[in-house]
Amino acid sequence: MEQATRTETDSLGSLEVPADALWGIHTARALENFPISKRPISVYPDLVRALVMVKQAAARANARIGVLEPERAELIDRACAAVLDGAHHEAFVVGVIQGGAGTSTNMNTNEVIANVGLGLDGRAPGDYAHLHPIDDVNRSQSTNDTYPTAVKMAMALTLNRLLAELEDLRVAFGRKGQEFHNVLKVGRTQLQDAVPMTLGQEFRGFAHTLGEDLQRLRETLPLLGEINLGATAIGTGITADPNYGDAVLAELSAIVGESVPGFRLQTAPDLIEATSDAGVFMTVSGALKRSAIKLSKICNDLRLLSSGPQAGLSEINLPPRQAGSSIMPGKVNPVIPEVVNQVAFSVAGADVTVTMAAEAGQLQLNAFEPVIVHSIMQSLVWMTEACRTLRVNCVDGITANVEHLEDQVGSSVGVVTALTPYIGYAASAKLAKRALAERATVARLVVEEGLMSAEQVRRVLSPERLSGLEVVTAAIPVIRPDGSAPSGSGAR
Protein backbone atom coordinates (compact mmCIF):
# COMPACT_ATOMS: atom_id res chain seq x y z
CA MET A 1 0.00 0.00 0.00
CA GLU A 2 1.43 3.37 -1.06
CA GLN A 3 2.16 5.85 1.67
CA ALA A 4 0.12 9.05 1.48
CA THR A 5 2.22 12.11 0.74
CA ARG A 6 1.92 15.87 0.56
CA THR A 7 3.71 18.20 -1.83
CA GLU A 8 6.01 20.89 -0.48
CA THR A 9 7.91 23.48 -2.46
CA ASP A 10 11.09 25.45 -1.89
CA SER A 11 13.33 27.57 -4.12
CA LEU A 12 14.77 24.44 -5.74
CA GLY A 13 11.43 22.92 -6.69
CA SER A 14 8.87 20.51 -5.23
CA LEU A 15 9.14 17.23 -3.32
CA GLU A 16 6.73 14.68 -1.93
CA VAL A 17 7.02 14.09 1.80
CA PRO A 18 4.98 11.70 3.98
CA ALA A 19 1.59 13.28 4.62
CA ASP A 20 1.79 12.90 8.39
CA ALA A 21 5.49 13.84 8.77
CA LEU A 22 6.23 16.65 11.16
CA TRP A 23 9.21 17.60 9.02
CA GLY A 24 9.09 19.08 5.54
CA ILE A 25 10.95 19.66 2.30
CA HIS A 26 14.15 21.10 3.76
CA THR A 27 14.52 18.10 6.05
CA ALA A 28 13.71 15.77 3.14
CA ARG A 29 16.54 17.26 1.10
CA ALA A 30 18.94 16.84 4.05
CA LEU A 31 17.96 13.18 4.35
CA GLU A 32 18.86 12.71 0.68
CA ASN A 33 22.06 14.72 0.84
CA PHE A 34 23.60 13.51 4.11
CA PRO A 35 23.08 9.74 4.54
CA ILE A 36 26.44 9.68 6.34
CA SER A 37 26.33 9.08 10.08
CA LYS A 38 23.08 7.06 10.29
CA ARG A 39 22.59 8.92 13.56
CA PRO A 40 19.87 11.59 13.79
CA ILE A 41 20.31 14.73 15.86
CA SER A 42 17.72 13.29 18.27
CA VAL A 43 20.45 10.95 19.53
CA TYR A 44 21.38 13.98 21.65
CA PRO A 45 18.14 14.89 23.50
CA ASP A 46 19.78 17.92 25.10
CA LEU A 47 20.48 19.32 21.62
CA VAL A 48 16.82 18.94 20.67
CA ARG A 49 15.74 20.62 23.90
CA ALA A 50 18.19 23.48 23.41
CA LEU A 51 17.08 24.08 19.82
CA VAL A 52 13.47 24.21 20.91
CA MET A 53 14.25 26.53 23.84
CA VAL A 54 15.78 28.97 21.36
CA LYS A 55 12.66 28.83 19.14
CA GLN A 56 10.39 29.32 22.14
CA ALA A 57 12.41 32.32 23.34
CA ALA A 58 12.44 33.80 19.82
CA ALA A 59 8.64 33.53 19.50
CA ARG A 60 8.11 35.23 22.84
CA ALA A 61 10.61 37.98 22.00
CA ASN A 62 9.11 38.55 18.55
CA ALA A 63 5.64 38.87 20.05
CA ARG A 64 6.91 41.25 22.74
CA ILE A 65 8.52 43.65 20.24
CA GLY A 66 5.55 43.40 17.87
CA VAL A 67 7.04 41.63 14.85
CA LEU A 68 5.01 38.42 15.17
CA GLU A 69 1.27 38.07 15.67
CA PRO A 70 0.44 36.96 19.23
CA GLU A 71 -1.69 34.06 17.97
CA ARG A 72 1.18 32.61 15.94
CA ALA A 73 3.65 33.21 18.73
CA GLU A 74 1.34 31.36 21.12
CA LEU A 75 1.12 28.34 18.78
CA ILE A 76 4.91 28.24 18.50
CA ASP A 77 5.21 28.55 22.29
CA ARG A 78 2.78 25.67 22.87
CA ALA A 79 4.48 23.49 20.26
CA CYS A 80 7.85 24.11 21.89
CA ALA A 81 6.43 23.25 25.30
CA ALA A 82 5.20 19.91 23.94
CA VAL A 83 8.66 19.01 22.61
CA LEU A 84 10.31 20.14 25.84
CA ASP A 85 7.95 17.77 27.66
CA GLY A 86 9.45 14.93 25.62
CA ALA A 87 7.08 14.65 22.64
CA HIS A 88 8.04 14.42 18.94
CA HIS A 89 11.79 13.95 19.41
CA GLU A 90 11.64 11.23 16.77
CA ALA A 91 10.82 13.91 14.18
CA PHE A 92 14.31 15.41 14.51
CA VAL A 93 15.72 13.14 11.83
CA VAL A 94 18.55 14.92 10.01
CA GLY A 95 21.97 13.35 10.45
CA VAL A 96 24.40 14.76 12.98
CA ILE A 97 27.03 15.12 10.25
CA GLN A 98 25.79 17.54 7.58
CA GLY A 99 27.00 20.27 5.27
CA GLY A 100 25.65 23.78 5.57
CA ALA A 101 26.92 24.83 9.01
CA GLY A 102 23.83 23.43 10.75
CA THR A 103 21.21 24.81 8.35
CA SER A 104 19.55 21.40 8.02
CA THR A 105 19.26 21.11 11.80
CA ASN A 106 17.72 24.56 12.04
CA MET A 107 15.30 23.83 9.19
CA ASN A 108 14.31 20.48 10.72
CA THR A 109 13.56 22.29 13.99
CA ASN A 110 11.57 25.03 12.26
CA GLU A 111 9.46 22.47 10.38
CA VAL A 112 8.75 20.30 13.41
CA ILE A 113 7.68 23.27 15.54
CA ALA A 114 5.49 24.64 12.74
CA ASN A 115 3.75 21.33 12.11
CA VAL A 116 3.27 20.56 15.81
CA GLY A 117 1.76 24.03 16.16
CA LEU A 118 -0.54 23.43 13.19
CA GLY A 119 -1.70 20.21 14.82
CA LEU A 120 -2.48 22.05 18.04
CA ASP A 121 -4.61 24.41 15.92
CA GLY A 122 -6.49 21.51 14.36
CA ARG A 123 -4.74 21.79 11.00
CA ALA A 124 -2.85 19.29 8.86
CA PRO A 125 0.94 19.21 8.57
CA GLY A 126 2.16 21.41 5.74
CA ASP A 127 -0.61 24.00 6.03
CA TYR A 128 2.03 26.70 6.27
CA ALA A 129 -0.29 29.59 5.36
CA HIS A 130 -1.38 29.54 8.99
CA LEU A 131 2.07 28.92 10.59
CA HIS A 132 5.20 29.00 8.48
CA PRO A 133 8.52 27.29 9.43
CA ILE A 134 10.65 30.18 8.19
CA ASP A 135 8.48 33.29 8.17
CA ASP A 136 7.10 32.60 11.66
CA VAL A 137 9.17 30.02 13.57
CA ASN A 138 12.47 31.39 12.21
CA ARG A 139 11.48 35.07 12.47
CA SER A 140 14.40 37.39 13.39
CA GLN A 141 16.81 34.44 13.22
CA SER A 142 19.45 32.78 11.09
CA THR A 143 20.99 29.34 11.42
CA ASN A 144 24.21 31.19 12.16
CA ASP A 145 22.95 32.58 15.47
CA THR A 146 20.33 30.02 16.57
CA TYR A 147 22.49 26.93 15.92
CA PRO A 148 25.63 27.95 17.85
CA THR A 149 23.48 29.32 20.66
CA ALA A 150 21.57 26.05 20.91
CA VAL A 151 24.65 23.85 20.77
CA LYS A 152 26.35 25.82 23.54
CA MET A 153 23.26 25.37 25.69
CA ALA A 154 23.12 21.66 24.82
CA MET A 155 26.76 21.25 25.82
CA ALA A 156 26.12 23.04 29.11
CA LEU A 157 23.13 20.79 29.88
CA THR A 158 25.06 17.61 29.05
CA LEU A 159 28.22 18.81 30.80
CA ASN A 160 26.16 19.35 33.94
CA ARG A 161 25.28 15.64 33.92
CA LEU A 162 28.93 14.71 33.45
CA LEU A 163 29.93 16.91 36.39
CA ALA A 164 27.43 15.11 38.61
CA GLU A 165 28.74 11.67 37.62
CA LEU A 166 32.35 12.77 37.94
CA GLU A 167 31.64 14.06 41.44
CA ASP A 168 30.00 10.74 42.38
CA LEU A 169 33.06 8.91 41.05
CA ARG A 170 35.39 11.19 43.01
CA VAL A 171 33.45 10.45 46.19
CA ALA A 172 33.57 6.71 45.48
CA PHE A 173 37.37 6.77 45.18
CA GLY A 174 37.52 8.84 48.37
CA ARG A 175 35.48 6.22 50.22
CA LYS A 176 37.90 3.53 49.11
CA GLY A 177 40.76 5.74 50.26
CA GLN A 178 39.23 5.80 53.72
CA GLU A 179 38.50 2.07 53.67
CA PHE A 180 42.13 1.27 52.77
CA HIS A 181 43.73 3.98 54.92
CA ASN A 182 45.89 1.59 56.96
CA VAL A 183 46.67 -1.01 54.27
CA LEU A 184 50.41 -0.74 53.65
CA LYS A 185 51.78 -1.52 50.19
CA VAL A 186 54.83 -0.98 48.02
CA GLY A 187 54.77 2.18 45.93
CA ARG A 188 56.30 2.01 42.45
CA THR A 189 58.04 4.39 40.11
CA GLN A 190 58.75 3.41 36.49
CA LEU A 191 57.13 0.03 37.33
CA GLN A 192 59.96 -0.70 39.80
CA ASP A 193 59.59 -1.07 43.56
CA ALA A 194 60.06 2.28 45.26
CA VAL A 195 59.01 3.11 48.82
CA PRO A 196 56.03 2.08 50.92
CA MET A 197 52.70 3.89 50.99
CA THR A 198 49.16 2.93 51.86
CA LEU A 199 46.53 1.74 49.45
CA GLY A 200 44.35 4.46 50.95
CA GLN A 201 46.82 7.12 49.88
CA GLU A 202 46.76 5.74 46.35
CA PHE A 203 42.97 5.85 46.13
CA ARG A 204 42.79 9.28 47.73
CA GLY A 205 45.17 10.43 45.02
CA PHE A 206 42.71 9.17 42.42
CA ALA A 207 39.93 11.11 44.13
CA HIS A 208 41.98 14.28 44.28
CA THR A 209 42.92 14.26 40.59
CA LEU A 210 39.27 13.80 39.64
CA GLY A 211 38.43 16.78 41.83
CA GLU A 212 40.91 18.92 39.89
CA ASP A 213 39.26 17.94 36.62
CA LEU A 214 35.86 18.81 38.02
CA GLN A 215 37.17 22.33 38.57
CA ARG A 216 38.62 22.63 35.07
CA LEU A 217 35.38 21.46 33.48
CA ARG A 218 33.26 23.78 35.63
CA GLU A 219 35.39 26.69 34.43
CA THR A 220 34.13 26.15 30.87
CA LEU A 221 30.45 26.71 31.78
CA PRO A 222 30.59 30.54 31.81
CA LEU A 223 32.26 30.47 28.39
CA LEU A 224 29.37 28.46 26.96
CA GLY A 225 26.98 31.15 28.19
CA GLU A 226 28.16 33.71 25.62
CA ILE A 227 25.63 33.65 22.75
CA ASN A 228 25.07 35.56 19.51
CA LEU A 229 21.27 35.63 19.12
CA GLY A 230 20.36 38.69 17.11
CA ALA A 231 23.48 38.41 14.99
CA THR A 232 21.52 36.67 12.21
CA ALA A 233 23.66 35.83 9.17
CA ILE A 234 27.13 37.20 9.97
CA GLY A 235 26.73 39.42 13.02
CA THR A 236 25.29 42.60 11.48
CA GLY A 237 21.75 41.83 12.68
CA ILE A 238 20.18 42.14 9.24
CA THR A 239 16.41 41.27 9.20
CA ALA A 240 16.21 41.48 13.01
CA ASP A 241 14.55 44.36 14.88
CA PRO A 242 17.10 46.38 16.91
CA ASN A 243 15.19 45.47 20.06
CA TYR A 244 15.21 41.77 19.34
CA GLY A 245 18.64 40.92 20.82
CA ASP A 246 17.87 42.17 24.31
CA ALA A 247 14.35 40.75 24.22
CA VAL A 248 15.39 37.26 23.16
CA LEU A 249 18.23 37.17 25.70
CA ALA A 250 15.77 37.94 28.49
CA GLU A 251 13.27 35.35 27.28
CA LEU A 252 15.87 32.61 26.81
CA SER A 253 17.43 33.32 30.20
CA ALA A 254 13.99 32.90 31.81
CA ILE A 255 13.44 29.59 30.01
CA VAL A 256 16.84 28.19 30.92
CA GLY A 257 16.48 29.45 34.51
CA GLU A 258 18.68 27.66 37.04
CA SER A 259 18.82 24.36 35.16
CA VAL A 260 22.63 24.49 35.11
CA PRO A 261 24.36 25.97 38.20
CA GLY A 262 27.01 28.49 37.22
CA PHE A 263 25.60 28.92 33.71
CA ARG A 264 24.36 32.39 32.76
CA LEU A 265 23.53 33.60 29.27
CA GLN A 266 24.96 36.84 27.97
CA THR A 267 25.16 38.39 24.52
CA ALA A 268 28.64 38.50 23.03
CA PRO A 269 30.12 42.02 22.87
CA ASP A 270 31.17 41.53 19.23
CA LEU A 271 28.56 39.61 17.25
CA ILE A 272 30.67 39.36 14.11
CA GLU A 273 33.52 37.77 16.06
CA ALA A 274 31.13 35.52 17.98
CA THR A 275 29.48 34.26 14.79
CA SER A 276 32.76 33.15 13.23
CA ASP A 277 34.84 32.08 16.25
CA ALA A 278 34.93 28.48 17.51
CA GLY A 279 37.43 28.99 20.32
CA VAL A 280 35.03 28.05 23.10
CA PHE A 281 34.56 24.62 21.57
CA MET A 282 38.30 23.98 21.62
CA THR A 283 38.39 25.00 25.28
CA VAL A 284 35.58 22.63 26.22
CA SER A 285 37.05 19.82 24.14
CA GLY A 286 40.49 20.35 25.64
CA ALA A 287 39.14 20.18 29.19
CA LEU A 288 37.24 17.03 28.27
CA LYS A 289 40.38 15.45 26.83
CA ARG A 290 42.37 16.29 29.95
CA SER A 291 39.73 14.66 32.15
CA ALA A 292 39.45 11.61 29.89
CA ILE A 293 43.19 11.02 29.72
CA LYS A 294 43.62 11.29 33.49
CA LEU A 295 40.67 8.95 34.03
CA SER A 296 42.26 6.53 31.57
CA LYS A 297 45.52 6.67 33.53
CA ILE A 298 43.61 5.74 36.69
CA CYS A 299 42.05 2.82 34.84
CA ASN A 300 45.49 1.72 33.69
CA ASP A 301 46.55 1.67 37.35
CA LEU A 302 43.48 -0.33 38.37
CA ARG A 303 44.24 -2.92 35.70
CA LEU A 304 47.86 -3.17 36.82
CA LEU A 305 47.02 -3.35 40.53
CA SER A 306 44.51 -6.14 39.90
CA SER A 307 46.67 -8.06 37.42
CA GLY A 308 47.06 -11.76 38.01
CA PRO A 309 45.49 -13.04 40.11
CA GLN A 310 48.44 -15.43 40.56
CA ALA A 311 51.20 -14.17 38.30
CA GLY A 312 50.59 -10.42 38.51
CA LEU A 313 50.55 -7.71 41.16
CA SER A 314 47.22 -8.85 42.58
CA GLU A 315 47.08 -6.03 45.13
CA ILE A 316 43.37 -5.41 44.65
CA ASN A 317 40.40 -7.34 43.33
CA LEU A 318 38.04 -5.81 40.81
CA PRO A 319 34.45 -7.06 40.85
CA PRO A 320 34.11 -9.95 38.37
CA ARG A 321 31.68 -8.70 35.72
CA GLN A 322 31.72 -11.39 33.03
CA ALA A 323 33.56 -14.46 31.76
CA GLY A 324 36.85 -13.38 30.28
CA SER A 325 37.49 -15.99 27.65
CA SER A 326 35.79 -18.42 25.32
CA ILE A 327 38.74 -20.80 25.64
CA MET A 328 40.26 -20.26 29.10
CA PRO A 329 37.83 -21.33 31.85
CA GLY A 330 37.75 -19.16 34.94
CA LYS A 331 39.51 -16.19 33.37
CA VAL A 332 38.04 -12.81 34.36
CA ASN A 333 39.15 -9.63 32.62
CA PRO A 334 39.12 -5.99 33.85
CA VAL A 335 36.41 -5.10 31.32
CA ILE A 336 35.13 -1.97 33.04
CA PRO A 337 38.47 -0.13 33.15
CA GLU A 338 39.05 -1.34 29.58
CA VAL A 339 35.86 0.24 28.26
CA VAL A 340 36.69 3.50 30.04
CA ASN A 341 40.12 3.44 28.39
CA GLN A 342 38.42 3.16 25.00
CA VAL A 343 36.13 6.09 25.76
CA ALA A 344 39.22 8.14 26.59
CA PHE A 345 40.82 7.20 23.27
CA SER A 346 37.66 8.36 21.49
CA VAL A 347 37.58 11.65 23.41
CA ALA A 348 41.22 12.31 22.50
CA GLY A 349 40.46 11.65 18.83
CA ALA A 350 37.39 13.88 18.98
CA ASP A 351 39.55 16.69 20.33
CA VAL A 352 41.73 16.48 17.21
CA THR A 353 38.57 16.66 15.08
CA VAL A 354 37.34 19.74 16.96
CA THR A 355 40.73 21.40 16.57
CA MET A 356 40.88 20.79 12.82
CA ALA A 357 37.28 21.92 12.32
CA ALA A 358 37.85 25.12 14.30
CA GLU A 359 40.92 25.90 12.22
CA ALA A 360 39.15 25.22 8.91
CA GLY A 361 36.47 27.91 9.28
CA GLN A 362 36.77 30.74 6.80
CA LEU A 363 35.80 34.39 7.00
CA GLN A 364 32.48 35.18 8.74
CA LEU A 365 31.29 31.63 9.56
CA ASN A 366 32.64 28.21 10.48
CA ALA A 367 30.90 25.73 8.19
CA PHE A 368 32.12 22.77 10.21
CA GLU A 369 30.25 23.28 13.45
CA PRO A 370 28.14 20.11 12.93
CA VAL A 371 31.17 17.85 13.32
CA ILE A 372 32.35 19.97 16.27
CA VAL A 373 28.95 19.54 17.91
CA HIS A 374 28.80 15.80 17.27
CA SER A 375 32.37 15.28 18.52
CA ILE A 376 31.88 17.18 21.77
CA MET A 377 28.37 15.92 22.48
CA GLN A 378 29.44 12.31 21.95
CA SER A 379 32.43 12.83 24.22
CA LEU A 380 30.23 14.36 26.93
CA VAL A 381 27.67 11.56 26.74
CA TRP A 382 30.25 8.77 26.62
CA MET A 383 32.29 10.26 29.46
CA THR A 384 29.16 10.56 31.60
CA GLU A 385 28.27 6.92 31.07
CA ALA A 386 31.89 5.84 31.51
CA CYS A 387 32.08 7.54 34.92
CA ARG A 388 28.85 5.91 35.99
CA THR A 389 29.80 2.38 34.95
CA LEU A 390 33.28 2.72 36.46
CA ARG A 391 31.77 3.73 39.78
CA VAL A 392 28.83 1.30 39.91
CA ASN A 393 30.39 -1.73 38.22
CA CYS A 394 33.96 -1.43 39.45
CA VAL A 395 35.13 1.06 42.09
CA ASP A 396 32.36 0.46 44.61
CA GLY A 397 33.21 -3.25 44.70
CA ILE A 398 37.02 -3.12 44.85
CA THR A 399 38.63 -5.08 47.69
CA ALA A 400 42.23 -5.27 48.89
CA ASN A 401 44.42 -8.36 49.17
CA VAL A 402 45.68 -7.32 52.61
CA GLU A 403 47.81 -10.35 53.50
CA HIS A 404 49.50 -10.33 50.11
CA LEU A 405 50.31 -6.63 50.48
CA GLU A 406 51.74 -7.16 53.96
CA ASP A 407 54.00 -9.91 52.63
CA GLN A 408 55.21 -7.67 49.81
CA VAL A 409 56.07 -4.80 52.14
CA GLY A 410 57.80 -7.12 54.58
CA SER A 411 60.07 -8.51 51.88
CA SER A 412 60.58 -5.28 49.93
CA VAL A 413 64.06 -3.80 49.78
CA GLY A 414 62.42 -0.43 49.19
CA VAL A 415 62.02 0.02 52.93
CA VAL A 416 65.75 0.57 53.15
CA THR A 417 65.11 4.13 51.94
CA ALA A 418 63.59 4.91 55.34
CA LEU A 419 66.84 3.83 56.99
CA THR A 420 69.24 5.94 54.92
CA PRO A 421 69.11 8.98 57.27
CA TYR A 422 70.33 6.70 60.08
CA ILE A 423 72.84 4.39 58.42
CA GLY A 424 73.78 6.30 55.25
CA TYR A 425 73.22 5.74 51.55
CA ALA A 426 76.25 3.50 50.98
CA ALA A 427 75.35 1.09 53.78
CA SER A 428 71.71 1.09 52.66
CA ALA A 429 72.64 0.25 49.05
CA LYS A 430 74.87 -2.59 50.23
CA LEU A 431 72.10 -3.99 52.42
CA ALA A 432 69.54 -3.74 49.61
CA LYS A 433 71.77 -5.69 47.25
CA ARG A 434 72.41 -8.35 49.89
CA ALA A 435 68.71 -8.62 50.77
CA LEU A 436 67.86 -9.31 47.13
CA ALA A 437 70.62 -11.87 46.73
CA GLU A 438 69.83 -13.73 49.97
CA ARG A 439 66.04 -13.20 49.85
CA ALA A 440 66.33 -11.77 53.34
CA THR A 441 64.51 -8.84 54.89
CA VAL A 442 66.28 -5.52 55.21
CA ALA A 443 65.12 -5.23 58.83
CA ARG A 444 66.87 -8.44 59.84
CA LEU A 445 70.10 -7.56 58.02
CA VAL A 446 70.32 -4.10 59.62
CA VAL A 447 70.13 -5.66 63.07
CA GLU A 448 72.61 -8.43 62.13
CA GLU A 449 75.11 -5.81 60.95
CA GLY A 450 74.74 -4.00 64.26
CA LEU A 451 73.74 -0.77 62.57
CA MET A 452 70.52 -0.37 64.54
CA SER A 453 68.70 -2.20 67.30
CA ALA A 454 65.58 -4.24 66.60
CA GLU A 455 63.46 -1.67 68.45
CA GLN A 456 64.93 1.19 66.46
CA VAL A 457 64.24 -0.63 63.20
CA ARG A 458 60.70 -1.41 64.31
CA ARG A 459 60.02 2.25 64.99
CA VAL A 460 61.50 3.53 61.72
CA LEU A 461 59.76 0.85 59.67
CA SER A 462 56.37 1.23 61.32
CA PRO A 463 53.50 1.52 58.81
CA GLU A 464 52.76 5.04 60.01
CA ARG A 465 56.29 6.26 59.34
CA LEU A 466 56.76 4.34 56.11
CA SER A 467 53.64 5.86 54.60
CA GLY A 468 54.26 9.35 55.98
CA LEU A 469 51.18 9.27 58.17
CA GLU A 470 53.44 9.88 61.16
CA VAL A 471 55.83 12.70 60.36
CA VAL A 472 59.22 12.80 62.06
CA THR A 473 59.89 16.43 62.86
CA ALA A 474 62.93 16.10 65.11
CA ALA A 475 66.45 16.39 63.72
CA ILE A 476 67.98 13.23 62.24
CA PRO A 477 71.64 12.56 63.22
CA VAL A 478 74.16 13.46 60.52
CA ILE A 479 75.77 10.49 58.75
CA ARG A 480 79.57 10.38 58.91
CA PRO A 481 81.56 10.59 55.64
CA ASP A 482 82.41 6.90 55.88
CA GLY A 483 78.71 6.05 56.03
CA SER A 484 78.63 5.13 59.71
CA ALA A 485 76.26 6.71 62.17
CA PRO A 486 77.50 8.67 65.21
CA SER A 487 77.57 6.73 68.42
CA GLY A 488 74.30 6.80 70.31
CA SER A 489 72.32 7.68 67.20
CA GLY A 490 69.06 5.95 66.56
CA ALA A 491 65.51 6.28 65.56
CA ARG A 492 63.18 8.48 67.52
From TrEMBL:
Residues 416-466 form the Fumarase C C-terminal domain. GO terms for molecular function: aspartate ammonia-lyase activity. GO terms for cellular component: cytosol. Residues 13-349 form the Fumarate lyase N-terminal domain. The keyword Lyase applies. Signal peptide: none annotated. Keywords: Lyase. One of its GO terms (biological process) is tricarboxylic acid cycle. The keyword Ubl conjugation does not apply. It comes from the Bacteria. NCBIfam families: PRK12273.1. PANTHER family: ASPARTATE AMMONIA-LYASE. This is Aspartate ammonia-lyase. It comes from Arenivirga flava.
